Amino acid sequence: MPQPSKVMALVPAYASAGIIQETLDSLSAQTYPNFEVLVSVDVCNDGTYETCLAHSEQDSRFRVIRQQGERLGYSGNCNFLMDEADADYVMLAFHDDLLEPEFTEKLCRVLDQRPEVILAFPDTYLTNPDGSQEHWKFTALEGLETPLQRGLVMQGRPRLWWAPNRGMFRLKEARAIGGIKPHRAGEFSVDYPWLFHMSLLGEFARVPETLVHKRYQPDSLSRLWEFSGEQWLEAMGSCMRELWNADIATEYKLLISRRLHSEMGLLHDRLKGTNPAMVFARRALRKLRSLLPGTW
């Protein structure tokens, strides 16, 4: 009987001693047999490392690494884990996420049965710091089989574009991207260019079951961002870089880049107050004033 595909959960942990135990417990409860967990604790002194280490002593499938020196940051820690991983499929298991026991088994089954799929992901139930809740069901890529179709959708930042990051993906293909890259706006939405590039390499398959329960904390990384137009412009520029580095047909790159360039141009114009329609209106008004002096 063939060996089942090997799956690794990659946990980029940082300053999460108060919440990470539940995440570790949910990983230990996974029903899939060929499963391991790699934890990288970024530089912090709140007891996160000690909590993870104690858990690993109770579950031999866990390996915990403590970072020394300068902090890696979110993207650096994720990239470190992907470099260290030894598996067919991996998933980023964030320290504020709880996984249903069947998470690994059900997503792995999709990747085993559908070679055209690069990433499989479930629905997510989110609890915000204020207690409000949301149900993430990302459907924008369903039925899209070509890189062109998926690229055109993802470059437009469809609602809930971030939901697939709570999924499982093929490690070999993901490594070809070169990691999750910061840009001129730091780590703002670095998952956006990453998932955009992933969508160009293969299909995203939604498993229509709620298998992740996310708990945003008041100091969660994404809760600290401004979500300014300038930040989005830099993230979109990072997508342009990912597009031209992607292993897809040049024709697709041209078609997607035209749309992306247009969206970036419109955003830049809004930020600088140079929307073409507004520029035309101001020029027309100045012309009218010159023709009718003394009436303004």
Walk me through the structure.
This protein is of the alpha/beta class and 296 residues long. It has 10 helices and 9 strands. The chain has helices at 20-28, 48-56, 73-84, 103-113, 147-154, 171-175, 191-201, 229-245, 250-272, 276-291, and strands at 7-13, 35-41, 62-66, 89-92, 97-99, 117-127, 133-136, 168-170, 203-215. Strands 1, 2, 3, 4, 5, 6, 7, 8 and 9 form a 9-stranded mixed sheet that branches. α5 packs parallel to α9 (250-272) and α8 (229-245) packs antiparallel against α9. The longest helix has 23 residues, at 250-272. The model has no long low-confidence stretch (mean pLDDT 90).
Summarize the structure.
41% of the residues lie in helices and 19% in strands. The protein is built from ten helices and nine strands. Strands 1, 2, 3, 4, 5, 6, 7, 8 and 9 form a nine-stranded mixed beta sheet that branches.
Annotate the secondary structure layout.
Blueprint: E1 7-13, H1 20-28, E2 35-41, H2 48-56, E3 62-66, H3 73-84, E4 89-92, E5 97-99, H4 103-113, E6 117-127, E7 133-136, H5 147-154, E8 168-170, H6 171-175, H7 191-201, E9 203-215, H8 229-245, H9 250-272, H10 276-291
Parallel strand pairs: 1-2, 1-4, 2-3, 6-9
Antiparallel strand pairs: 4-8, 5-9, 6-7, 6-8
Name its key features.
296 residues, 41% helix, alpha/beta, nine-stranded mixed beta sheet
